[in-house]
Amino acid sequence: MEMRYVIEADNLYKKLGSFELDIPRLRIPEGFATALIGENGAGKTTLINILAGLRLDAKGDIRWFGNVKDIDTGMTRERIGYTGPGNYYLPSWTVKQIRQISELLFPSFHTDRFTEWCARLAIDVDAMTKEGKKISKLSDGNRMKLMLAGVLARDTNLLLLDEPASPLDPLMRDGLNNILRDYLAAGDDSAASGQTDETAPAAGGRTVFFSTHNIADMESVTDYAIIMTHGRIAEEGFVEDLKEKYIMVKGDADTAGAAKEILYSFSGTGSYGYEGLCLAADADKLSGLSVSLETPTLTQISVAVMKQGSHLAGVRAA
Question: Per the CB 3.0–4.6 Å rule, which of 93, 95, 99, 241 could disulfide with 237?
Fold first, then answer.
């Protein structure tokens, strides 16, 4: 099956002080949840802001939904739902005002759906008809839930979510995984039903692209991963493919010296042994060593890649 991409970008470049975002090629597969993984300062927010059309000063070529080269063309912005940190809504606004303004800004905004999402996410439904609290008085978690309610109340093809899980409590993070899965599944159902209008999900379903620096809470919803270090893509692929590309190796201290020369990443634990990631292509080199081999988690792969990226960055700077 031919892969379809909801966003294709080439030669993206943006310099911010001493930081450089430099991505020769970016492809976000349509119909899947893609995680943008990286440390704080890796460039995740800068990249999402460029893709969401919030930053228009980056160099490079971007195409949305196949062939749209200008995000302000037709219904392109209408088809994208964005959430991010900072003053997404003005601090003085109330929930009621957010509903009213969203009705004016977005043709596909459904007031009843917004109310339902506010109730499901435990946001005060009375605030729909009363003045309620100002946004500045809400907790970070409730502000994020309010942003999610706003985008989920619209008919979109693509969600661009900047660190959506960070301000949420553990229970709500688990719920977010289910919400995103439901969003993708609804897109699959719409595509199968043959909807062809401009705002309906295209064949392949809806797409979610979210950033995170702590993948453990979002690993269950992640289909595809893009790992960034220092403004560059260090690794990417479907999660199952990445788990075949790398192997988690654990061994006793007496084989640490020999294994360290083979492993992609290495973490020693003194007399208690070591563990590290090995490229599957190099697994034969471990023959003869007393080690155990396991399938790595996406978190283990991400941490190893980010550590390797930090090492290479240090080498480049030296």
Answer: 241
